[in-house]
Amino acid sequence: MALDRILETEVMDTAEEARSYDQIDHLEVNTRFVADFLKAHGPCRGGAILDIGTGTARIPIELCQRDPKARVVATDLADHMLALAARNVEAAALSDRIRLLKSDAKVVGNEVGEPIEAVISNSIIHHIPDPTQALISMMHCASPGATVFVRDLARPSTTEELQRLVNTHAAGAPEQARRLLADSLHAALTEDEVREMLKSLGVVDADVRMTSDRHWTWTWKVPSA
User: Which of 28, 57, 120, 199 could disulfide-link 85, Cβ–Cβ 3.0 to 4.6 Å?
Assistant: First the structure.
């Protein structure tokens, strides 16, 4: 039995929150996310990769640096996150391959304006009180044959396990970063909750699995037309 889910703010949209988030060392997590996505998807084909909840665009930058054919439409609802994302993309000299777009994860897709080769999302689901509409949006906006690759934190079963994860993965981090991780773990869904949610949307035998001690991942290929 997991801990009760305690929601956190859906949109982190103050300048301080955006700066604090961007200063957390996500390199290992982002590098693994991109490597696992490319393993599931294969080499990028030059179509649009839609990144939902991009934050400060660290994953699109990593993806474009890893695959020369990657082109990303990176979306977020937080203005301050997008402002920092624009700076990061410009600093990486990737403005020609990463387009930033303000959009709500629950309705994203129509604004892209081109076929979507893949939908990726890292750590946005736990911010949404009822993620069902976001999952529907991800499934519907992707083109036939596209890859949907979604990863997020998993809510632990006990307070002790939650604290262990914070101590392991935020050791030496500022107190604000430790509190942010703890709050996010408390707001996350469990692997079984995600699987049941997808089952209710008609995704039978959804490929949802634990891919680290604190992350679940859903991988899905959109049926070809």
Answer: 57
Tell me how far CA of residue 43 lies from CA of 18, 47, 68, 114, 151, in angstroms: 31, 11, 9, 19, 19
Q: Are strands 48-52 and 116-122 parallel, antiparallel or unpaired?
A: parallel
Helix (H, G, I), strand (E, B) or coil at 115: coil
Question: What is the pLDDT at residue 157?
Answer: 95
Partners of residue 119 on adjacent β-strands? 50, 148
Q: Which two tokens stand for residue 214?
A: 């604190």
Dist. CA 163–CA 160, nearest whole Å: 5
CA 24 to chain centre: 16
> What would you measure as the largest C-alpha separation in the chain, in angstroms?
50
Tokens 């909750």: give the residue. 193
Residues 178-190 have pLDDT tens digits of 888 899 999 999 9
pLDDT value at residue 22: 56
The predicted structure's pLDDT at residue 70? 98
Q: Which tokens sit at 198?
A: 């997808």
Q: How far apart are CA 10 and CA 129, in angstroms?
A: 8
CA distances from 79 to 61, 108, 117, 150 (A): 19, 16, 26, 23
How confident is the model at residue 14, as a pLDDT?
64
pLDDT digits (tens, 9 = 90+) for 55-108: 999 999 999 999 999 999 999 999 989 999 999 999 999 999 999 999 998 887
Cβ atoms within 10 Å, residue 221: 15
